Amino acid sequence: MSIDGTSESAPVTGERTEDAHEGGFRTDMMISVDRGGPRYGEFIEKVREFMDRARAAFPSEELVDELIDELTVVNAKLAAVEINEWESPSGTRIDLPARGNITLPPYLVDKAGDDGVQARVTFTRFHLGGNNAAHGGFICTAFDDLLGMTSALATGKVTRTAYLTVNYRSITPLNTELTVSTSIVRLEGRKIFVAATMKDGERLCAEADGLFIALNPGQP
Ligand SMILES: CCCCCCCCCCCCCCCC(=O)SCCNC(=O)CCNC(=O)[C@H](O)C(C)(C)COP(=O)(O)OP(=O)(O)OC[C@H]1O[C@@H](n2cnc3c(N)ncnc32)[C@H](O)[C@@H]1OP(=O)(O)O
């Protein structure tokens, strides 16, 4: 343990098998439905449950000691199988909620085409902002990813967010399935103007508009 109380474990770099590539995102995103095996989605659900429970828990000192020991064992097992971002099941398993990526709030895509995406997202205790409402940053994260997907599907190209404006219109509840609808506002060369809404039933919780730029070859 270091003087500031943090662990001395090596940082997770994902560099172990990383090779050279042409840009920030690969044009040939290595999507998969089986990487990590048939129970990988169940593993991700357990991790998400852990994140929720860790956020909600008030453990005793004894339990904290016990959990540190158990998590040290789990982390060592995961460290032994660390891999680069392109081949990790997390983020590439398109059959799983949010592509199996725990960074993202879990969403399910109902419809995805070149004119927009329809999805359902549920924020849980891990995403708590305050007083049982979702944290605005996670709302923004959901919009960013689904609008990135929208831009990619509309152009068939790798894109990055240039700007994303989110307006929070009413409280976004936890543990409630919310609908997200995205659309293409207009395409102008490499510029993809997009918009989205997030609703609880008919109630507008938040809306977003953004600009994504299709990357040139070699652009990071
Ligand atoms: C069903 C399953 C399917 C699965 C399918 C997989 C889907 C998989 C989805 C992944 C989804 C990931 C979604 C996360 C996406 C991020 O979160 S990306 C991370 C956040 N974004 C960044 O880090 C970007 C940082 N910024 C940059 O890299 C550069 O500024 C940019 C955005 C690439 C633009 O730079 P550039 O390429 O040099 O472009 P530049 O020439 O400056 O500008 C081009 C044009 O855009 C305009 N522009 C640029 N920036 C701005 C701005 N901020 N405001 C206004 N105009 C602007 C310029 O004025 C210019 O306009 P014109 O003169 O052409 O009219």
From TrEMBL:
Sequence ranges of Basic and acidic residues compositional bias: 15-24
Protein location: Cell projection, Ruffle membrane; Cytoplasm; Membrane
Membrane topology summary: Peripheral membrane protein
One Pfam family hit: 4HBT
Highest taxon, organism lineage: Bacteria
UniProt feature, compositional bias: Polar residues: 1-10
Annotated ranges, domain Thioesterase: 132-203
Top enzyme category: hydrolase
Coiled coil: none
Protein name: Acyl-coenzyme A thioesterase THEM4
Species annotation: Williamsia maris
Upper taxonomic lineage: Bacteria, Bacillati, Actinomycetota, Actinomycetes, Mycobacteriales
